[in-house]
Amino acid sequence: MATGRKYPVIFALYGGPLVQRVRRAWGDPFHQILAQSGYIVFTLDNRGSANRGTEFEGALYRQLGRVEVEDQVAGAEFLKQFDYVDPDRIGVQGHSYGGYLVLMSLFQAPEIFKAGVSSAPVTEWRLYDTAYTERYLGMPDKNKAGYDNSSVFPFVKGLEGKLLLIHGMADDNVIFNNSSMLLDELQKNAQQFDFMAYPGQTHRIGSDKMRKRHFLNLIKRYFDENL
Questions:
Q1: Active site amino acids
Q2: What domains sit in the chain, N to C, each tagged with a CATH number?
Protein backbone atom coordinates (compact mmCIF):
# COMPACT_ATOMS: atom_id res chain seq x y z
CA MET A 1 0.00 0.00 0.00
CA ALA A 2 1.18 3.48 -0.87
CA THR A 3 1.56 5.88 2.04
CA GLY A 4 -1.26 8.40 2.17
CA ARG A 5 -3.35 6.70 -0.50
CA LYS A 6 -6.99 5.76 0.08
CA TYR A 7 -8.21 2.58 -1.60
CA PRO A 8 -11.68 1.60 -2.82
CA VAL A 9 -13.26 -1.48 -1.25
CA ILE A 10 -15.23 -4.29 -2.88
CA PHE A 11 -17.33 -6.44 -0.55
CA ALA A 12 -17.34 -10.00 -1.94
CA LEU A 13 -20.75 -11.18 -0.80
CA TYR A 14 -22.60 -14.44 -0.37
CA GLY A 15 -24.19 -14.29 3.07
CA GLY A 16 -26.72 -17.08 2.68
CA PRO A 17 -27.41 -20.24 4.70
CA LEU A 18 -25.10 -23.27 4.65
CA VAL A 19 -22.10 -21.34 3.34
CA GLN A 20 -18.99 -19.98 5.08
CA ARG A 21 -16.81 -17.70 2.95
CA VAL A 22 -14.15 -16.61 5.46
CA ARG A 23 -11.57 -19.38 5.80
CA ARG A 24 -7.89 -19.74 6.56
CA ALA A 25 -7.15 -20.38 2.90
CA TRP A 26 -6.45 -18.66 -0.39
CA GLY A 27 -9.63 -17.33 -1.95
CA ASP A 28 -11.07 -16.74 -5.39
CA PRO A 29 -8.34 -15.96 -7.99
CA PHE A 30 -10.56 -13.17 -9.32
CA HIS A 31 -10.34 -11.48 -5.94
CA GLN A 32 -6.55 -11.64 -6.24
CA ILE A 33 -6.83 -9.82 -9.57
CA LEU A 34 -8.98 -7.13 -7.98
CA ALA A 35 -6.52 -6.73 -5.10
CA GLN A 36 -3.60 -6.44 -7.52
CA SER A 37 -5.57 -3.76 -9.37
CA GLY A 38 -5.77 -1.54 -6.30
CA TYR A 39 -8.96 -2.68 -4.58
CA ILE A 40 -9.36 -3.89 -1.03
CA VAL A 41 -11.45 -7.08 -1.22
CA PHE A 42 -13.44 -7.67 1.96
CA THR A 43 -15.54 -10.67 2.96
CA LEU A 44 -17.70 -10.98 6.07
CA ASP A 45 -19.81 -13.98 7.10
CA ASN A 46 -22.96 -12.29 8.34
CA ARG A 47 -25.55 -13.80 10.63
CA GLY A 48 -27.33 -16.63 8.88
CA SER A 49 -24.19 -18.11 7.35
CA ALA A 50 -22.75 -21.47 8.37
CA ASN A 51 -20.68 -22.92 11.23
CA ARG A 52 -21.41 -20.46 14.05
CA GLY A 53 -24.17 -22.37 15.83
CA THR A 54 -27.96 -22.49 15.72
CA GLU A 55 -28.60 -19.01 17.11
CA PHE A 56 -26.23 -17.37 14.63
CA GLU A 57 -27.56 -19.35 11.67
CA GLY A 58 -31.20 -18.93 12.69
CA ALA A 59 -31.10 -15.13 12.74
CA LEU A 60 -32.65 -14.92 9.28
CA TYR A 61 -35.44 -17.45 9.92
CA ARG A 62 -38.75 -16.24 8.42
CA GLN A 63 -37.22 -13.09 6.90
CA LEU A 64 -34.26 -12.89 4.55
CA GLY A 65 -32.34 -9.81 3.49
CA ARG A 66 -32.44 -7.82 6.73
CA VAL A 67 -29.83 -9.01 9.26
CA GLU A 68 -27.45 -9.81 6.40
CA VAL A 69 -27.46 -6.17 5.31
CA GLU A 70 -27.15 -4.94 8.90
CA ASP A 71 -24.00 -7.02 9.35
CA GLN A 72 -22.45 -5.93 6.05
CA VAL A 73 -23.08 -2.29 7.02
CA ALA A 74 -21.37 -3.00 10.36
CA GLY A 75 -18.43 -4.36 8.37
CA ALA A 76 -18.25 -1.14 6.37
CA GLU A 77 -18.32 0.93 9.56
CA PHE A 78 -15.46 -1.20 10.91
CA LEU A 79 -13.36 -0.51 7.81
CA LYS A 80 -13.81 3.24 8.07
CA GLN A 81 -11.40 3.37 11.02
CA PHE A 82 -8.47 2.63 8.70
CA ASP A 83 -6.95 5.67 7.05
CA TYR A 84 -6.15 3.73 3.86
CA VAL A 85 -9.86 2.98 3.22
CA ASP A 86 -11.85 5.39 1.06
CA PRO A 87 -15.30 5.38 2.73
CA ASP A 88 -16.88 7.04 -0.29
CA ARG A 89 -15.89 4.20 -2.63
CA ILE A 90 -17.33 0.99 -1.24
CA GLY A 91 -18.86 -1.48 -3.68
CA VAL A 92 -20.53 -4.88 -3.48
CA GLN A 93 -20.32 -7.92 -5.74
CA GLY A 94 -22.00 -11.30 -5.49
CA HIS A 95 -23.59 -14.21 -7.34
CA SER A 96 -26.82 -16.12 -6.58
CA TYR A 97 -27.64 -15.43 -2.90
CA GLY A 98 -24.70 -13.04 -3.04
CA GLY A 99 -26.38 -11.30 -5.97
CA TYR A 100 -29.55 -11.00 -3.91
CA LEU A 101 -27.55 -9.52 -1.04
CA VAL A 102 -25.90 -7.03 -3.42
CA LEU A 103 -29.35 -5.75 -4.37
CA MET A 104 -30.58 -5.55 -0.79
CA SER A 105 -27.39 -3.76 0.26
CA LEU A 106 -27.64 -1.17 -2.52
CA PHE A 107 -31.36 -0.63 -1.93
CA GLN A 108 -31.28 -0.52 1.88
CA ALA A 109 -27.93 1.17 2.53
CA PRO A 110 -27.26 3.55 -0.39
CA GLU A 111 -25.31 5.87 1.91
CA ILE A 112 -22.72 3.10 2.35
CA PHE A 113 -22.59 1.14 -0.90
CA LYS A 114 -21.99 3.22 -4.03
CA ALA A 115 -21.80 0.57 -6.77
CA GLY A 116 -22.71 -3.08 -7.10
CA VAL A 117 -22.57 -6.01 -9.50
CA SER A 118 -25.35 -8.53 -8.94
CA SER A 119 -25.28 -11.76 -10.95
CA ALA A 120 -28.01 -14.42 -11.01
CA PRO A 121 -29.90 -12.91 -8.06
CA VAL A 122 -33.06 -14.17 -6.47
CA THR A 123 -35.42 -11.19 -6.42
CA GLU A 124 -38.66 -12.91 -5.38
CA TRP A 125 -38.42 -15.99 -3.14
CA ARG A 126 -41.74 -17.37 -4.36
CA LEU A 127 -39.92 -18.08 -7.63
CA TYR A 128 -37.14 -20.12 -6.03
CA ASP A 129 -36.77 -23.79 -5.10
CA THR A 130 -39.42 -24.56 -2.49
CA ALA A 131 -37.30 -27.11 -0.61
CA TYR A 132 -34.72 -24.39 0.05
CA THR A 133 -37.02 -21.42 0.52
CA GLU A 134 -39.57 -23.06 2.81
CA ARG A 135 -36.78 -24.32 5.07
CA TYR A 136 -35.99 -20.70 5.97
CA LEU A 137 -39.19 -18.75 5.30
CA GLY A 138 -41.81 -21.38 6.03
CA MET A 139 -44.91 -21.91 3.90
CA PRO A 140 -45.97 -18.90 1.81
CA ASP A 141 -49.53 -18.96 3.13
CA LYS A 142 -48.26 -19.01 6.73
CA ASN A 143 -45.67 -16.22 6.36
CA LYS A 144 -46.90 -13.78 3.73
CA ALA A 145 -45.22 -10.79 5.39
CA GLY A 146 -41.91 -12.65 5.58
CA TYR A 147 -42.00 -13.49 1.87
CA ASP A 148 -43.06 -9.97 0.92
CA ASN A 149 -40.33 -8.33 3.00
CA SER A 150 -37.68 -10.79 1.80
CA SER A 151 -38.32 -9.76 -1.81
CA VAL A 152 -36.19 -6.96 -3.25
CA PHE A 153 -39.20 -5.15 -4.70
CA PRO A 154 -40.31 -3.18 -1.62
CA PHE A 155 -36.82 -1.65 -1.53
CA VAL A 156 -36.21 -0.82 -5.21
CA LYS A 157 -36.80 2.91 -4.78
CA GLY A 158 -33.80 3.05 -2.44
CA LEU A 159 -31.34 2.63 -5.30
CA GLU A 160 -29.03 5.63 -5.57
CA GLY A 161 -25.72 4.11 -6.64
CA LYS A 162 -24.63 2.30 -9.76
CA LEU A 163 -26.01 -1.19 -10.45
CA LEU A 164 -24.93 -3.78 -12.98
CA LEU A 165 -27.35 -6.72 -13.19
CA ILE A 166 -26.17 -9.93 -14.89
CA HIS A 167 -28.09 -13.15 -15.59
CA GLY A 168 -27.71 -16.29 -17.69
CA MET A 169 -30.81 -16.68 -19.85
CA ALA A 170 -30.85 -20.48 -19.40
CA ASP A 171 -30.40 -20.37 -15.62
CA ASP A 172 -32.19 -23.45 -14.27
CA ASN A 173 -31.50 -22.63 -10.61
CA VAL A 174 -32.39 -18.95 -10.23
CA ILE A 175 -34.66 -18.59 -13.22
CA PHE A 176 -34.29 -15.57 -15.51
CA ASN A 177 -37.74 -14.28 -14.48
CA ASN A 178 -36.10 -13.02 -11.28
CA SER A 179 -34.10 -10.50 -13.29
CA SER A 180 -36.77 -9.72 -15.88
CA MET A 181 -39.19 -8.77 -13.08
CA LEU A 182 -36.53 -6.52 -11.56
CA LEU A 183 -35.79 -4.89 -14.92
CA ASP A 184 -39.47 -4.05 -15.24
CA GLU A 185 -39.70 -2.65 -11.71
CA LEU A 186 -36.56 -0.52 -12.06
CA GLN A 187 -37.80 0.90 -15.35
CA LYS A 188 -41.25 1.67 -13.92
CA ASN A 189 -39.53 3.67 -11.18
CA ALA A 190 -37.23 5.46 -13.67
CA GLN A 191 -34.22 3.92 -11.93
CA GLN A 192 -31.07 3.91 -14.06
CA PHE A 193 -28.98 0.72 -14.15
CA ASP A 194 -26.89 -1.46 -16.43
CA PHE A 195 -27.70 -4.99 -17.59
CA MET A 196 -25.97 -7.91 -19.30
CA ALA A 197 -27.71 -11.12 -20.37
CA TYR A 198 -25.80 -14.27 -21.33
CA PRO A 199 -27.77 -16.34 -23.89
CA GLY A 200 -27.59 -20.08 -23.28
CA GLN A 201 -25.78 -19.72 -19.97
CA THR A 202 -27.05 -21.47 -16.86
CA HIS A 203 -26.49 -20.50 -13.22
CA ARG A 204 -22.77 -21.04 -13.74
CA ILE A 205 -22.08 -18.19 -16.13
CA GLY A 206 -18.96 -18.81 -18.18
CA SER A 207 -19.26 -22.33 -19.54
CA ASP A 208 -16.37 -21.67 -21.92
CA LYS A 209 -13.08 -19.84 -21.44
CA MET A 210 -13.85 -16.77 -23.54
CA ARG A 211 -17.31 -16.24 -22.06
CA LYS A 212 -15.86 -16.55 -18.55
CA ARG A 213 -13.26 -13.94 -19.47
CA HIS A 214 -16.02 -11.66 -20.76
CA PHE A 215 -17.97 -12.08 -17.50
CA LEU A 216 -15.02 -11.31 -15.21
CA ASN A 217 -13.72 -8.44 -17.35
CA LEU A 218 -17.21 -6.94 -17.31
CA ILE A 219 -17.30 -6.96 -13.51
CA LYS A 220 -13.83 -5.46 -13.15
CA ARG A 221 -14.44 -2.77 -15.75
CA TYR A 222 -17.70 -1.78 -14.06
CA PHE A 223 -15.95 -1.14 -10.78
CA ASP A 224 -13.08 0.63 -12.55
CA GLU A 225 -15.58 3.03 -14.12
CA ASN A 226 -17.99 3.48 -11.23
CA LEU A 227 -16.13 3.15 -7.94
A1: 96, 171, 203
A2: 7-226 (3.40.50.1820)
